Amino acid sequence: MMRVRWRCFQCAAACLVSFFSDGCRLCSSDVSYHGQGLTSLTSTPPCSPWEAVVSLADVNKLLQHFDCMSSVHLCGLKKSFGDQIVIENLDLMIEAGTYLVLLGPSGCGKTTTLRMIAGLESPIAGKVVMDGNDMTCVPPRKRDVSMVFQNDGLYPHLTVEQTIRLSLRGRCSKGEQESRVSDAVRLTGLGTLLGKLPRQLSGGELRRAALATAVAKKTAVRLLDEPLSGLDVAVRQQLQEDILRWHHSVPGTTVHVTHDGREAMRMADQIAVMDGGRVIQVGSPEQVYDQPQTIGVASAIGTPAMNWLQADLVDGVIQISDRSNVTTGEALRIDGPDGPVVIGLRPNAFRLWSDRDGDTGGQGITFQAVMQDCRAVEESTEVVLSASGWRFIAVFDRSDAGAARRNVSPVSQNFTLWAPAASFHVFSTLTQQRLKLSDVG
Fold this sequence. Notes:
Elements: E1 2-6, H1 9-20, E2 40-42, E3 50-54, H2 56-67, E4 72-81, E5 84-94, E6 99-103, H3 110-118, E7 125-130, E8 133-134, E9 145-148, H4 160-168, H5 174-188, H6 203-217, E10 221-225, H7 233-249, E11 253-258, H8 261-267, E12 270-275, E13 278-283, H9 285-290, H10 295-300, E14 307-314, E15 317-319, E16 326-328, E17 334-335, E18 339-345, E19 351-352, E20 364-377, E21 380-387, E22 390-397, H11 401-407, E23 414-420, E24 425-428, E25 434-437
Parallel strand pairs: 6-11, 6-12, 9-10, 10-11
Antiparallel strand pairs: 1-3, 2-3, 4-5, 4-7, 7-8, 12-13, 14-15, 14-18, 16-20, 17-25, 18-24, 19-23, 20-21, 20-23, 21-22, 24-25
């Protein structure tokens, strides 16, 4: 037995927790595993040294695990189609083993970026670097990359099994092919579908078959182009689980493209938000949701979407004009230049005035609102409201007494809402950048 030490818990978790257990590979909670060879795993807080007692065989497995992963560095990529520039000076670093989601609206360059990583498109400037090697001019077949296309990419005249086997031709021995096909079928649950043609499969089964082909290749980098779009809810949820199980159990770096913020929050270790051919923010799902750095990022994350309230910054103080039923408490000061601003409020930021639990603080905005519509959505109640012509959506827990009262109140009833300053996301209208709210109580 020998003792192995990592520079921080995150490094160890990325290879050990996912490799030897079913736990979350990025959580900092204590993990123990009592299997052959690996005798103990004890974590300390994130970013502090972390060690485990392992056997030499386990160390070899870990080395093989790392060999199957690759970092991806996109350096100053630029891409155009004719006179139209679709990617402009894009920089992005994806660490080995990360599940990164490229999130953004249609036409922002997500799929083009994915295709440049795969080698299916060539940038007119910049580099694609994998594991320290410049792959910009390397043809797709020589890149250790697999891609699941939005249109499934299956051969119409081949069965599912034939398609999987064809993808392995020339990659490994026949014995290894048998093992890989078996592993892919087991991971994706395709056992009863191997003999079927694509036209005989449902939408979810087609995606699962395409996923199995990528699983069998065991590439260092896996690219998923809108893998969950256009599927029923139940099928989407099952395929989400299949994809995450694949990522956590088979070593590799995954890049996933979507326009769905909720999907990105559910799947990603890291989210890279794109807009206008650029990456405008990269961070964990929590960072992107809680601290969006631009209006575009704030709009991309959250369901229902962010509510936007126009205001002005005068002598460093927020002022809301022309809305008699929207008032501020104590002066709300902003670190930034005077000018027009926009206040973003998540639908769950609002509280009934009567349900503040003593949290007045004086810093916040009060709304004399009229209810326009009210509907139950799963465990929540969504309320559409209007205050001095400003229409917005508030979300409350249905078990909350205030939400329960509203759920049976007649439409067009007046009542008072309050949003604390701590829930504000304030941006400059001119620069679109986040502004810091000073001295929030």
